[in-house]
Amino acid sequence: MTSTNPRTAVLSGGDNTDILDMPTWLFQYSPRSAKDLQNGWEAGAELDYPALDRHADEIKMDDFVLFWVSGPAKEAGIIGWGLASGHLEERDHAKNYHDPDGPRSLRASLEVNLCSVFDRPIITREELKQHPVFEDFDLFAMPNRSNAFTVTAEQWAVIFARIDQKLAA
Hints:
Blueprint: H1 17-20, E1 24-29, H2 31-43, E2 64-69, E3 77-94, E4 104-117, E5 123-124, H3 125-129, H4 138-141, E6 149-151, H5 153-168
Parallel strand pairs: 1-2
Antiparallel strand pairs: 1-6, 2-3, 3-4, 3-5
C-alpha cells in the first residue's frame, strides 16, 4: 500500500481507534471513471474531485472517503480511500457518467486527498453483502442514487476490518 497521508498508516497495522470514529462516506464511480482514477493515481496526477449531489452539508474536513467502482457483484467494490481535504466547489463534470465525453455541467465537488487506490476492488460487493450490517446499505438498495452514500459506524467497522485483514495478508 502506498499512502500520501500519515493517518492511513492505521490501515496497515497501527492504532485503529481514531479512524473507526471518523465519519465515513462512499463515492461510487463508473468503471471508466474508476479506471481514470486508478491511472491518475499511478501517474501521480491530480484527482478530478468527485461530484457530490447529496450530504454536501454533512461532509467535513478529514472525514474518511471510500471510492467504489460499480459493476457485477465480483467486480464492484472498494478501490481506494482518502480524506476530505477541502471545501466544496463547483467543477466541470459529465452530466452522465455513462457518457463522459458528452455534455458537461458544473456540479458541487469535494476535494479529497487520496491515500490509496488499487487496480481492482480490495473488497467486493459480493463480500460485503454477506454481512448483515449491509442489509439496508443505501448503495445496495439504490445503486443509481447520486453521491455520496452514508457509511454507518457499524458498516465502517466491517469494511475497515476487511481492509486491514487483506492488507495484512
